[in-house]
Amino acid sequence: MLYDLVIKNTIYVNLFTHEMYPAQIAVQSGRIAHVTQPGEAELTGVWEYDAKNKFAVPGLIDTHLHIESSMMTPRYFARALAPRGTTTVCADPHEIANVMGLKGIQYMLQATENLPLRVLILAPSCVPSVPEVETCREPFGGKEIEWILEQPRIAGLGEVMDYPGVVADAPRMQEVLCAGRKAGVFIQGHAPDLTGEELSRYLAAGCESDHETHRVEEALEKLRAGMVLEVRHASNCYDLERLLPLLLRLDCLENITFCTDDTEPGDLVEHGHLDEMIRIAVKGGMDPIDAIKAATVNAARLIRLRDRGSLRPGNLADLLLVSDLHDFRPDEVFLGGELIARGGNMIREDKEEKQSYPNTMLLTTPIRPEDFQVPAHGPSVKLHTIAYNDDNKFVTSLETCEFPVENGCACIGNQADFSLFAVFERHGRNGSRALAPVHRLGLVTGAVATTISHDCHNLFVAGRDPQEMYLAASTLAATGGGIVCVEQGRVVFQLELPLAGLMCDEPPQVMAQKLEQLKEVLSRFGLPGHTPHMMLSSFALAVIPAVRLTDRGLLDTIRQEMIPLYAD
Amino acid sequence: MLYDLVIKNTIYVNLFTHEMYPAQIAVQSGRIAHVTQPGEAELTGVWEYDAKNKFAVPGLIDTHLHIESSMMTPRYFARALAPRGTTTVCADPHEIANVMGLKGIQYMLQATENLPLRVLILAPSCVPSVPEVETCREPFGGKEIEWILEQPRIAGLGEVMDYPGVVADAPRMQEVLCAGRKAGVFIQGHAPDLTGEELSRYLAAGCESDHETHRVEEALEKLRAGMVLEVRHASNCYDLERLLPLLLRLDCLENITFCTDDTEPGDLVEHGHLDEMIRIAVKGGMDPIDAIKAATVNAARLIRLRDRGSLRPGNLADLLLVSDLHDFRPDEVFLGGELIARGGNMIREDKEEKQSYPNTMLLTTPIRPEDFQVPAHGPSVKLHTIAYNDDNKFVTSLETCEFPVENGCACIGNQADFSLFAVFERHGRNGSRALAPVHRLGLVTGAVATTISHDCHNLFVAGRDPQEMYLAASTLAATGGGIVCVEQGRVVFQLELPLAGLMCDEPPQVMAQKLEQLKEVLSRFGLPGHTPHMMLSSFALAVIPAVRLTDRGLLDTIRQEMIPLYAD
Q1: What is the pLDDT of residue A543?
Q2: Are strands A118-123 and A86-91 parallel, antiparallel or unpaired?
Q3: CA of B40 vs chain A CAs: smallest distance (Å)
């Protein structure tokens, strides 16, 4: 038989028997047709490719990520991943869904067609993350989820973040899970610190996996209970390193997959993607075959993908050639039998072209300077305040602080260690907006406005000077969204993100440079670190303990109750 | 929380982490609600059961068997399996389908409802095994398969035996496989000795597994290619013992399941079922956890059963308590949280009651004495003859033998080492019937008639004396089917099988005794061995090399061409 393609002189990494042996790999119509076993005759192909004794492994599969976190539109995101050997991703578009509703899902489905990366979409299960305490474009209930699950290329239900709702049988989560179970699809979990009988309730409701596990004991409990661990290595979260000691001592790694969740362009460009996870795992002592299986066989099994994850005949001919399994760097990437990348670069770069996107900056009334002032009478006013710990910029608590009053307004940002947060609803829904003092954030100067603000992605502003905050916010409001930094009264950084205020058409290298500039600015402002923009985008996240600001006001995220600004 | 049932003091065999530790198992509404981990508090149940430190494992799952082979109707079959710890079976009803067509499938679906055994049905892919060379009730094409796949409790497409048809893109198999792939269901293979590029074609067509592998090298090739090995231990085939050396040296056993295919009642009563396979595997050196996983986790994965195969919360509460993992004998069997068997016996025996079944003995014309005579002229006649090897009662070859003629008929059965086969179409289709001489079968005396005759289950008769053959056949024809033995001119054994001529309502113990009697009779006739009745039922099987007799006449099973009886 004359095959379309025969890849000769590979060392085949057999993930079924854990053997490696010289083999030829035949491809027909984009699928694996045959992999020779020792002793078989030479195969003949229309195209014959010499693998020069490199290892042949299946293309890598990421079981959980958000394309939006890269701030790149899907086609640019694909360019960053494909040369790294990732050939399939399971993407939860819940960021764009909060901004654009079902239209966002439709957009992601269209925008991920015919890319050099196979993108499966999950139906976002929690839009918004917590109903009734913040405003998104269009909340998803059972009906919306059912509609999404009927679309092509939908892999299941995306991370079920409202685990308290699942455990408590909240009607919204029952509806959403019922739709997922009825469709018989993969239901992806998200259950940090869930334990004991509550963990069992979460599993029994159909949630199969978790990517929020940081601790070895927590990971062991979840695996023992039958959960699949989607071990994460994100730009802002290094669970793989933390969990590796457990992975090394377990006899059974069937229920381990790898995922990246949120990765910024700089990390993609500099460090890579799942290839980096395999390098970290193997360097840490994991058997290369076990590490590769986590990113292939096990991943495909979790997502119910029966046509990939291994080089079984009939599967998609997505495969990598790698020189060294202990320093896993794909030299060649084949997608459907086509050589799409070599030496870490795409073979054929698409021409650069920026597309136009529907405007999602839908403020119902203009932003005014007084939106950044807290009106008050008398010599001072007591306000409820979001307080940070000095050593943890993620968890907050509630403080009641007293501020001097001048000209009918509380003086907040000019007090030592205090700054301000503001949130403006931007989905054309109700024009709600809120302001609150913040203690010990670390912000020393400047103001920053962003439309990347989990999960509803309303317009968020942080700063110390109301005038600078106004300049940042109004500059951003005049665009389709993005990030604006103001320092000493002028705009010093601006990144436009015309797609949903979350993404733009820029290549990974360009985005990496822009975010490097942003980091420098934010560092000067007093927000240092590897991913200050990611931290910034979580300041309004309504599911993190204990106090957050949404467009509706201050929120007790544990009780899910609004807190009045004035403490008197 | 107060659970329906808490099983206390178990040693939980955790198949996810390969650990064992003391645990309590909570059941709610027939499903696993929670399994405690070390350090958890005592659970409380309405019913609390003391496991007395026995090992708790999931109920066992057989991925491939034929209920018909037990000759018992499903409810009696279930009684034999349930006390042995098998809680789910994947049954291919292709025997009854050959006799009753789609009505046979409907019957099996009805008859397997509400049993103490969960029965999933596969759509038989090859009814009849080879079209156009034998007569079944109703051949199945794509349309019939599609109809079956839409019924509830259908697990997929049953063993795709026509592997030459698959490899050669035969239209019937393309239709059938297309229906299976479209439905996205499990497609079970059957591919003895298939190798190399043909094996790859078979896998690429969607066939996932094989239970016909006898040799270690063959098993290794299939596993390397990505096939799932359904390792078999049947009454007439001991593959598990043969393949154990490979299982012991493999690093990865994810793609190994256990199945029993065809088991006779005596073996079920005396030796057991999957529990016996686990005992054999563990005695042979396999790790008990690997052996248990083959019969639970791996089996559920192959058949796409997401609600069993492990004790994950939400799964069906099908579980076993076992005192010794190295001599695996389920002491207690729970099905859906109900204790259904203890100490190898059902807790509650259903009352015995024989049901009535539609008659499937549909001969279009009566059987006559002359049906067992070969008319001939002259002093002798040359006839094409089925010839057995002395040492292999399975494979045949074609011989041309010369027989004396007396009274216008060939003298066959009274020649040394010769006997006769006859086949009568019994499905009310065309009344076809055939007769042929047989060499070296070993039959010394007697005649036997049976309606269990793979795969079309026409009325088959073997004997040496035409009058005895006529007596056996006509006695059987007067019933709804079964087995009749005639010795020295009188009926010495009769087993009625009113359901499709294949099964009857008798408990396993009774059936075991009856078959013991049959074995004694057949042994006297010259057909000794552990399962002579199984050998008997394969004498007309049109897919075994090289010459068989069907209702249409002598068949060259390799070329699939009819052979004339007269060789002149």
Answers
A1: 78
A2: parallel
A3: 8
Sign, CA torsion B435/B441/B446/B449: negative
Q: What percent of chain A has pLDDT over 70?
A: 99
Of A40, A224, A306, the CB nearest to B37: A224
- Minimal Cα distance from B1: which residue of A? A197
B132 vs A244, residue with greater confidence = A244
CA distance A167 to chain B (A): 13
Question: Is the pLDDT score of A131 beyond 90?
Answer: no
How much is the pTM?
Answer: 0.96
Whether residue B353 has pLDDT greater than 90: no
Measured CA to CA, the distance from residue A283 to residue B266 in angstroms comes to 56
In a domain, B384, yes or no: yes
Residue at A186 is within a domain: no
In-domain check, residue B194: no
Per-residue pLDDT tens digits for A332-348: 999 999 999 999 999 98
The residue count of chain B comes to 568
How far is B3 from B242, CA to CA, in rounded Å?
45
- Whether B332 and B54 have beta carbons less than 8 Å apart is answered as yes
User: Could you give phi then psi for residue B228, rounded to 5 degrees?
Assistant: -90, 130
On whether the CB atoms of residues B459 and B478 are closer than 8 A, the answer is no
Distance from C-alpha of B304 to C-alpha of B361, rounded to nearest angstrom: 38
The boundaries of the domain holding residue B434 are 369-563
Q: Is B224 close to A314, i.e. CB distance below 8 A?
A: no
Q: Where are the alpha helices (DSSP H) in B492-541?
A: 508-525, 532-537
Six-digit token pair at A418?
Answer: 């205090």
Q: What is the pLDDT of residue B4?
A: 98
| Inter-chain CB proximity B37 and A301 less than 8 Å | no
Q: Chain B within 8 Å of A14 (Cβ-Cβ)?
A: yes
A303/A117 Cα distance (integer angstroms): 16
Query: What letter does residue A499 receive in the DSSP assignment?
Result: B
pLDDT greater than 90 at residue A268: yes
Residue B288 to residue B281: CA distance in whole angstroms: 8
Strand partners, B120: B90
Residue with tokens 């009856």: B514
CB atoms under 10 Å from CB of B1, counted, come to 11
Q: What is the CA radius of gyration of chain A?
A: 25
Residue B397 covered by a domain: yes
Residue B220 touches partner A, C-beta closer than 8 Å: yes
Domain count, chain B: 1
Q: Do A314 and B37 count as a contact with CB atoms less than 8 A apart?
A: no
Tokens of B371: 């049906």
Q: Which residues pair with A339 in a beta bridge?
A: A334
Give me the amino acid identity at B264. E
- B313 in A contact zone (CB under 8 Å): yes
| pLDDT recorded at residue A291 | 98
- Please tell me if residue A204 touches chain B, with a CB cutoff of 8 Å: yes
**Which residue among A32, A254, A314 places its CB closest to the CB of B206?**
A314
Nearest alpha carbon to residue B281 among B237, B322, B326: B326
**Any CB–CB contact under 8 A between B223 and chain A?**
yes
Of A1, A14, A225, the CB nearest to B312: A225
Substitution target from B1, B11, B17 for chain A, most A beta carbons within 10 A? B17
ipTM of the complex: 0.95
Enumerate the residues of chain A whose CB falls inside 8 A of the CB of residue B199.
313
CA distance B482 to B473: 10
Q: How far is B41 from chain A (nearest CA, A)?
A: 10
**A254 touches B: beta carbon within 8 Å:** yes
Six token digits for residue B295: 């019969």
Q: In whole angstroms, what is the distance from residue B519 CA to residue B542 CA?
A: 24
Q: Which of B329, B293, B325 is nearest to B311 (CA)?
A: B293
Structure tokens at B95: 């025997």
CA B136, B142, B144, B150 torsion: positive or negative? positive
Amino acid identity, residue A12?
Y
